[in-house]
Amino acid sequence: IFHATGDELEQVALKTLQVITTELSLGVSMGGSNDPVEKFLRPIITDCMAQLQKPELKLAKPSGKILKACAMASDPACTAITLATIPTLLSQYTTSDQATRKKALLDVLLDFLEASRALYGTAGLPTEHDKDFVTPLLTFKDRFFELFTNALMSSNEYNALRLAGIKGLHSMILLREFLSETEISYAVQFFVRIILEDPDSELQQTALDSLASLALLMPQVVRVIALPALFEMLPTSQSDMDVDTVVQKKSPEYILNAITKIGLEPTLFAETVPQILEKLGAVSNEFTGAANASYPIALLTTLLDLLKAKAQRSHGDLPQYLDNLVPHLIGMCIYPTIAASDDTESAMKNPEILNVVAGIMRVIMVHVDTSAQSGVINAIFGIFVHGNLSTLATFVTSPDQVPFTPLRSDSRTSQQNTTVLFATVIDSCRQQTVLPVENLQQFTGSLVEVTIKTPNVTQRGALAKAVGTILNKFNKGNALQGFISQVLVPQLHNVIGQEQSTSAEREAALIVYTWVAKAMVLSTNQIGYDMSGELMKMFSVPGLGKIAADGFNIVIGEQPDVMTKETFAVLRLLYKQRFFNYCIPYLVQGFESSTNGVRHNYLVALSHVLRNIPKQVLLTELPPLLPMLVHSLSFPDPELKSSTIATFQLITKDAPDLTAQH
């Protein structure tokens, strides 16, 4: 081990020592010099302690590893090694003035703490270890706590010593039945102080990582000590952002990042949600406008990031936030839009904030069952379709408020913008959830009509997605097939082709057309392929050709916020390959027969298709398309060039011979 030529050999040797020590310890009770374990360990301890006389030298570290490996083997071994070494190591530390030597000694003490945790168990976790056995390090607990605390709080510029202090306190907390609740609280306070006051980023991150680890095992102490301290540092007014304090205040983004790291565990998240909402309520009317909205956006993004992380870990507490968090946020977004004057300033009217709120709603909605979704969808339709706000949290009627009519093309812009929330709820519904409308075809047609007429880009995009989602999810048994093919598609064709329609209406109809095509392509419905063919015919239409070409990114691309597997869209197997096989011949033929002005649109559509199909399909079908790709590099469109170069990078790596031919 002292002269190992590589990590693998060293690990094998350490494991061998541990196994031998374990075997020798079987049936041993502490006591006598003839114990085989003590006989075996005596020369090992002697050699290692000789090297640790100069702990800053290179053989000290492997000496610590050897003692750790043997101490992990059994209670008799750990006790023997601890009693034979720790007093000397503590004495060395006390008499040393060199920071590097102190740090090296703390590293050895850390090895002992890790060995004890492996042998005697981790605090807060169930253990298979014999609970009658406790670590022999208990004898030295107070000295350990003093050493690691002093190292952490020292003003020494040698940060490695302070880092060892953080790691040591963390290891002591994790060791089963080692520190008392009071001592753990003190250690957590030290971590919080480092996070909030220390200027060194590495120390901050290490303390935060330690706190995040403890939050999962001991959420109560983090809830009582760390969370309140962090939330206290968050501003509640614009003036808080400008105040200079003796201690350099951390930015709200920094504090919220810390909250994100430690707030995952259900009891901690339950504490985090109301405090963030309280802060949001306090600042929403003050931090307004694009320049000042970053703080409210950061508050909500913290909730969204925590919810996403909880969803990835399959936390079971997500459904409970459907009944309190979702209505609260919807209310906060709607109330400012019904004030007597639309000039009322509120950060909650900011479109970016609405998108974050939509993301929060989506994460929660997809994790509840059909019954719970039905309750929400009924309330949402009551609010957005009928203007009934009585189901919202803390709703109070006022004589000077205006009606809430977000699904009209002539309503307030701020109300129209909230349709992103309406569309998100529809998109998050399971296929079994029933939309509370008497006639789904008529309702869908009304959404299309508003989408075409509205001058509001946000409302147009949200409602177009909602239409696509409805047609994708609720066309069970082709129940909507006739409506789509005989009513909706001809209606959209009519608007797109009418010269008397305004350019905005034609563009809006084309956008709806594209989302309907996507809904059908995902379910491999023939209507989707027919619509895609019609989209290609629009490449030559002035003013619409580029929009139609970019529409292929919507049709075949994976959109993060709508019609995904996670939101229960109807996705048929191999839908991308089928779309590719249908479109490519038409794209090639259209490119070859069109003029230069139109060719660009065929290349744009091709780039979207190639970027969104599985790599294996791309490599198999690419050879006849390479001349088109080479040609696309001659066009000035930077996005087209970037996409083409990315395709070439892929095939150069996986099919270099193919690239070389061109």
UniProtKB/TrEMBL annotation:
It is found in: Nucleus. One of its GO terms (cellular component) is cytosolic [4Fe-4S] assembly targeting complex. Coiled coil: none annotated. This is MMS19 nucleotide excision repair protein. Pfam families: MMS19_C. Residues 255-662 form the MMS19 C-terminal domain. One of its GO terms (biological process) is iron-sulfur cluster assembly. Its main location: nucleus. InterPro entries: ARM-like, ARM-type_fold, MMS19, MMS19_C. Belongs to the MET18/MMS19 family. SUPFAM superfamilies: ARM repeat. Key component of the cytosolic iron-sulfur protein assembly (CIA) complex, a multiprotein complex that mediates the incorporation of iron-sulfur cluster into apoproteins specifically involved in DNA metabolism and genomic integrity. In the CIA complex, MMS19 acts as an adapter between early-acting CIA components and a subset of cellular target iron-sulfur proteins. Keywords: DNA damage, DNA repair, Nucleus. It comes from the Eukaryota.
